[in-house]
Amino acid sequence: MPSLLYKSLTDYNSPLFRTQFLNVSAASPPSPPPPNRNLSCRITSQSMSCSSETPLPTLRTVTIPYYELKDKDADLSLKIEEGFGPNGLGILSITDVPEFPSLRRNLLCLSSRLAALPEDVKKELEDPQSRYNFGWSHGKEQLESGKPDLLKGSFYANPLIDVPTNDTYLIQRYPSYCGANIWPLAALPELEVAFKALGKLIFDVGLMVAYHCDQYVSRGMKMRKDEGLEQILLRSRCHKGRLLYYFPAQLSNHEENGDSMSSWCGWHTDHGSLTGLTCAMFKRNDVEISCPDSAAGLYIRTRSGEIVKATFGENEIAYQIGETTEILSQGYLCATPHGVRAPKGKEASGVDRSTFALFMQPDWYVNRRWDEKLNFLFNCRDEKLKFSEDVYIHKEVFNAEVLLFQLIPSNDSLTFGEYSEMLLDKYYHEKT
Questions:
Q1: CA triplet 23, 158, 131: central angle to 5 degrees?
Q2: CA–CA gap between residue 195 and residue 199 (Å, rounded)
Q3: pTM for the model
Q4: pLDDT tens digits, 221-247
Q5: Domain ranges of the chain
């Protein structure tokens, strides 16, 4: 799910990183920041096609073999820090995950078939009530310019739970998360099977990543067992998968927008907890090809403000930190702004792109129950993001990547659902 560009302030003694999740006291002494590590050894300079012809650095993601990840006794703190820490890119990848290559291919090959369905069929898959965050979405999301995004189509679904709740109040209050999945059961029945299979695998591996993140963070800050990233994701019903299809663009469109670092996906920072990503699949005339432009791909803005290209293998699952986890971890795990650059040039004409992302997120509300004496629903515990006086969240991105910030009211707190609905207002129409 898209979010807005976020600029993090890296003064760990400032009130920004005293921002807490749940019951960690904002008044407690600040934990020492994780040690700095120089990542220059992983940077290689490649000449990339851009307006200034300036070479841009390329970074290979930190990788962790699956066999190491699943070992709970393994000490992966150095790799977690290198990938997710203050000097990292906010991304790492997992290699050699059983069944992943076939599950990835099965789903990504369906994206073009989904996009090619008759318009009346795709219309039935739309859900305006959720601001198009369930089912099919095309031209509903706004780009950085404020114009509708017509470059790509998306299909959203929760791969773990078809109907997360029957509570009418919650469905109306948090339609982007509490709605039900919409599957093309008649037109493309294989989509549900492939979507759920890949989504569940990325979720299960993501829980292993979260476990090792908790082990790393717990060395620098105190947290209860149920406050860790792994437990927050386990009890959540909010997870959302997004199958993306970038339509083949004509040469003129590539020439017009190809120089932009975010020509295929605007600059943003994921606002959830942990995002699982597949490597993109490129096709021309339904035949799989390699990416026709070495400058195309995922770009990340580092903590020092440098823009670099991040790469990972076709058969690897990449994971990116979201800003909710940055808040939860007091900055030990860091989210980074990123965008996707489209290929340009003659070779890119007529090429489409497919990929899949799983947004792993906290619950919107936890443990709502009926109180028979008082005769109303109340919250036994909420997943609250608590903001101190000096905490800014991102508000909007304009051209030239100028940042504006919105100040959260002093000592205010929001549930993840409230926070998400506020951010989605910037990218979708207001609730119907």
A1: 90
A2: 6
A3: 0.78
A4: 888 777 899 999 999 998 999 999 999
A5: 58-251+259-428
